């Protein structure tokens, strides 16, 4: 939808013109999955699609939330800005308002807000982080609070923890806030140090395959993985003090892994330690122009997520396995939290049509759902549009 159409919808809904329009992107993670809340490395990039937020000050003591993607209109008075709603999409932007209140920022007057996003919901491309970050970016600008992008990402993450009740790491919000066109972000999730790495793919495209099996992070399986990793850390601490699994190299882990007596926690830890190493190796390979090695590491990442972390499921496995059969596919893996959602693949230009046709057909035959394919354009982070 064009910005002019969004502004027209805003005026129809509120009877007044929007005063400003903001945008924040979704993201795709090239490699480094379920490492972020374990203090490890991730390698996401911002996408060209995302979430728009239109806003105007309303002179009242309440905030109104509308979305062109959701039927429910939500009105929250100032005294309720830190209270979570029962089962409402508005918890994502409201959670961000709550963080500003908790940090001591005051609102002189309320806002009328309208949201529209073209990140497919449940695709694992971070529609929730895009919504949190665009709200934080807009409030930062409207209130003149002067917070940097990393602080805005932290606000978004806190909103997700406290209002969406998902114990996510920082990656999604960080990528949405700090993305840069044609670059991926090599981020240390412990220190938040990051490097923007050019993604130069000669004759190769990043293809996102949507399984249309929506991933449900709030189903508890995600929080369960977080708890299993925590248990692994506790058991390892008996032989070596660590804060995060990502502190261990593979060689160090092998020496002390027997301290993890819980077999499930052991598998989870093995994935995290291996994935941190794969991510570091993949970024090095990309910088050296070794795209074939990058692809092999993507494939190995999927196998580890399937076997040790157990977050793939038949839809994502079918999508990745069918991709691996195509000659021009350099690498393919699930991306995002898992349990449905999308895969990300590096595909040679000349193989893209064959990829879509053959993978699409095989997936539909096996899973009985028609998938969608997007050629990813790597875009910029949060911004004011007008």
How would you explain this protein's 3D organization?
It is a single chain. The chain starts with a helix and ends with a strand. The longest helix is centred in the C-terminal third of the chain and has 25 residues, at 263-287. A hairpin with a 6-residue loop joins strand 10 (329-335) and strand 11 (342-348). The strands form 3 sheets. The protein has a 6-stranded mixed beta sheet with strand order 5-4-6-3-1-13, with helices on both faces. Strands 10-11-9-12 form a 4-stranded antiparallel beta sheet. A 3-stranded antiparallel beta sheet has the order 2-7-8, with helices on both faces. 48% of the residues are buried. It has helices at residues 3-14, 91-102, 127-143, 149-164, 171-178, 221-236, 250-256, 263-287, 291-307, 313-324, 352-367; strands at 20-29, 41-42, 44-57, 62-67, 70-77, 111-117, 183-188, 194-198, 204-210, 329-335, 342-348, 372-375, 383-384. It has 11 helices and 13 strands. Helix content is 41%, strand content 22%. The model has no long low-confidence stretch (mean pLDDT 94). Helix 2 crosses helix 3 (127-143) and helix 4 runs antiparallel to helix 5. It has 386 residues and is α+β, with helices and mostly antiparallel strands. The protein has a domain at 3-198 and 380-384: Ribosomal Protein S5, domain 2 (2-Layer Sandwich).
């Amino acid at each position: 939808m064009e910005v002019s159409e969004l502004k027209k919808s805003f005026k129809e809904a509120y009877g007044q013109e929007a005063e400003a329009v903001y945008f924040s992107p979704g993201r795709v993670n090239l490699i480094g999955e379920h490492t972020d809340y374990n203090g490890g490395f991730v390698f996401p990039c911002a996408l060209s699609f995302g979430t728009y937020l239109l806003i105007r000050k309303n002179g009242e003591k309440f905030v109104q939330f509308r979305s062109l993607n959701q039927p429910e209109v939500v009105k929250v008075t100032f005294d309720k800005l830190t209270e979570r709603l029962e089962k409402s999409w508005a918890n994502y932007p409201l959670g961000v308002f709550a963080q500003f209140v908790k940090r001591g920022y005051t609102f002189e007057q309320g806002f009328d807000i309208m949201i529209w996003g073209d990140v497919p919901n449940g695709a694992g491309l971070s529609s929730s982080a895009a919504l949190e970050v665009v709200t934080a970016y807009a409030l930062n600008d409207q209130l003149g609070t002067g917070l940097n992008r990393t602080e805005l990402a932290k606000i978004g993450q806190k909103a997700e923890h406290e209002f969406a009740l998902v114990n996510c790491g920082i990656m999604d919000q960080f990528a949405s806030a700090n993305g840069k066109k044609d670059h991926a972000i090599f981020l240390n999730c412990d220190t938040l140090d990051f490097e923007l790495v050019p993604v130069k793919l000669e004759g190769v495209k990043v293809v996102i395959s949507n399984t249309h099996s929506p991933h449900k992070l709030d189903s508890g399986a995600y929080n369960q993985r977080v708890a299993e990793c925590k248990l692994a850390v506790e058991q390892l601490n008996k032989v070596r003090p660590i804060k995060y699994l990502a502190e261990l190299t593979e060689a160090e882990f092998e020496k002390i892994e027997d301290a993890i007596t819980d077999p499930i926690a052991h598998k989870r830890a093995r994935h995290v330690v291996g994935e941190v190493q794969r991510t570091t190796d993949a970024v090095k390979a990309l910088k050296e122009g070794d795209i074939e090695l990058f692809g092999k590491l993507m494939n190995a990442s999927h196998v580890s997520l399937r076997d040790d972390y157990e977050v793939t499921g038949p839809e994502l496995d079918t999508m990745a396995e069918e991709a691996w059969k195509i000659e021009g596919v350099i690498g393919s893996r699930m991306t995002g939290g898992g349990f449905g959602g999308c895969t990300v693949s590096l595909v040679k230009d000349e193989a893209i049509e064959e990829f879509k046709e053959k993978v699409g057909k095989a997936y539909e035959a096996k899973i009985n759902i028609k998938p969608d394919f997007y050629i990813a354009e790597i875009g910029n982070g949060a911004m004011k549009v007008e």
